[in-house]
Structure formats: C-alpha cells, structure tokens
Design goal:
Number of strands: 13
Mean pLDDT: 84
Oligomer: single chain
Order of helices and strands: HHHHEEEEEEEEEEEEEH
Shape: elongated
Helix content: 25-40%
Distance between the termini: 33 Å
Structural class: alpha/beta
Low-confidence stretches: 1-5, 64-77
Largest sheet: 6 strands, parallel
C-alpha cells in the first residue's frame, strides 16, 4: 500500500474522537471561537476517511508535532482531579458584601476554608464549578436579609446545609447526595430573613461541552443512517 492511498482509508470512531479532542483543546486555548469549533466538529463527525479528517486540524498545533498538520494520535486531555484541586493556602477571597447591589465569585478561584458573605436588598453568586479548594472541608456562612445568595457546586461534591431561615429559607435539595472519593465537602450555614440561600448542582463547562458533542454526534449518525437507508 502506498502513502497516496492513506487519505482514502476509512476513519474509525476513535480517529474522529482524537480529532475532536484537538478541537476541544483549541477552543479552550482561544485558537477557535465557538462558531468555528461547531463547524469543524460537525465536519469531524461527518468525515469518513483520513483525507476528510486531515484538513480539519491542519492549522492547529498538536502535542509533539511541530509542523501544522493534524495528529491522529492525539491523546484526550483530562480535567484536573480532586486531589489537584485541593490546594491548601488561604484562598483567593474570604468575604463578600452586597448592599442593594451584587457580588460574584466564579471561574478559577480558590475557595477558602471559610467564606463569609452578606446580602441586603441584593444578591450574590458563589460558583464552585471551576474553583480550587483550600481544604477538603470548606464552609460558606451566608446572611441574606431581603436578598439572596446562590451557591453552585459541581457534580461529585458533598453538600451539607445548616442554615436557619425566618420568613426565608435555605435550600436543602442537594443534601444527601454522596460525594465522590477525594471530593471536598461544602457546608452552607448562616441566616436568612425575608430572603433565601439557594444551593444548586450544575455540570462544569467541559461537561456541558461533552454532552453537546454527544448529542451532535448522535444527530449526525441518525441523519447519515437515514441517508444510507434512502
């Protein structure tokens, strides 16, 4: 078999997933915007041969490759595990106040061992989905008076709610969900008067992206299946 015949070889599902991994890395690094990423991802799952796959990542760098060509041996990148996210230290921020205003703690920040916040006629958001943690057990002490505080945790984190509400309340829906091995424990406590402290579990951006890719691939596979039957 000659090298000229390689582009005509049929690509496998694993080949398409490796190219999708290169695209995900390029999106995370800012080399592609969301529109370009979605267009190339569609082309990846439609590709049937190496010749159709190669141009999709030709202008993107790949690990261990110096020339601007696609590498079909790209290993999928892994998200940091819980041991890597429990970093010790003092935390990026230890308190927040919202008086007729709001506050946010989100993105790549370090949740301290104890975070205290106060919301009066205002609201706050504490998003732990991309956060690191100063310890295996961290505490949020929230006081909400005619205001609200929303706590967002990623899957795998154990949540314990110990707050007290008077004509207000604390959200207990996420209690009782077992944590993953090595994952932190988040204790939410404090006081709510004519206000509330909500606790919600949401997937990370990477997980939402993965689910979107799966749905897109399933849709394309169904479309190709109907086309072949027709």
């Amino acid at each position: 078999m000659t090298d000229d015949s390689v582009p005509d070889l049929r690509a496998s599902d694993a080949d398409r997933e490796r190219v999708a991994g290169v695209l995900r890395d390029a999106l995370a690094e800012g080399r592609l915007d969301m529109e370009e990423f979605e267009e190339r991802l569609d082309a990846t799952y439609r590709a049937r041969t190496y010749g159709e796959l190669a141009p999709i990542t030709r202008d993107l760098p790949a690990e261990g490759v110096t020339a601007p060509v696609v590498s079909l041996r790209k290993d999928p990148s892994a998200e940091p595990g819980w041991p890597e996210r429990i970093v010790g230290g003092e935390g990026s921020s230890t308190w927040a106040v919202a008086v007729m205003s709001g506050f946010q703690r989100k993105g790549r920040w370090t949740m301290p061992r104890r975070f205290t916040c106060f919301a009066f006629w205002g609201g706050g958001e504490i998003d732990l989905r991309e956060a690191n943690f100063a310890d295996r057990e961290v505490e949020i002490n929230a006081v909400a008076i005619m205001g609200g505080v929303d706590v967002i945790v990623p899957p795998g984190v154990e949540v314990v709610v110990r707050g007290i509400g008077f004509m207000g309340g604390f959200d207990h829906r996420e209690e009782g969900v077992p944590g993953e091995p090595g994952a932190p424990r988040v204790i939410v406590k404090g006081f709510a008067f004519w206000g509330g402290v909500g606790v919600e579990r949401k997937p990370t951006r990477a997980e939402k992206l993965r689910l979107r890719e799966e749905r897109r691939r399933e849709k394309l596979e169904r479309r190709e299946g109907r086309r072949e039957l027709g």
